[in-house]
Specification:
Helices cover 22% and strands 25% of the residues. The protein is α+β, with helices and mostly antiparallel strands. It has one domain (2-19, 28-67, 93-144): ph1033 like fold, CATH 3.10.590.10. A 5-stranded mixed β-sheet has the order 1-3-4-7-2. Strands 5-6 form a two-stranded antiparallel ribbon. Strand 3 and strand 4 form a beta hairpin. It binds a DNA duplex through loops. Pfam families: EVE. InterPro entries: 5hmC_binding, EVE_domain, PUA-like_sf, THYN1-like_EVE. It comes from Dyella caseinilytica.
Length: 145
Amino acid sequence: MKSEPDTFSIDDLKRKKREAWDGVRNYQARNFMRDGMRVGDGVFFYHSNCAEPGIAGLAEVASDAYADPSQFDPKSKYFDSGSSRDNPRWMLVDVKFTRKLKRVITLDELKNHPKLADMALLRKGNRLSVMPVDGKDWQYILTLE
DNA sequence: GCCAACGTTGGC
DNA sequence: GCCAACGTTGGC
């Protein structure tokens, strides 16, 4: 799961312990949260759009998917007038802090491992903020720490 | 700040 | 259904 550290970093999650992952407004990313995640699943917390893009820490899925409250809030920048409470368009999960990595495993470094070339994160043009990680890639990346 | 690679919108 | 225009993401 990607987040811009200027907005919400791994340190913010550490401090708050748990966070509703709101604001995802891409259908594919939503589907991964709604259909692909189960409570207890591991999450790589990725820092994007910053000086050192890469995996900064580990987190865990802490809830089933539910309607993102911000879509109903006219004052929120994530407000969606086309969504209704009866039939919410946007879903989210809660995420809880596990730990920071000892160091950021950078995007640049991940690109240098041929074994990881097929990761969704590394595929060309991928801008999704939520995407799946294979178990084998998860294990391999943790050995790089 | 630039720009490639998207996704969305809306006219037709 | 097509596609041009537009907006966003995110690395660099």
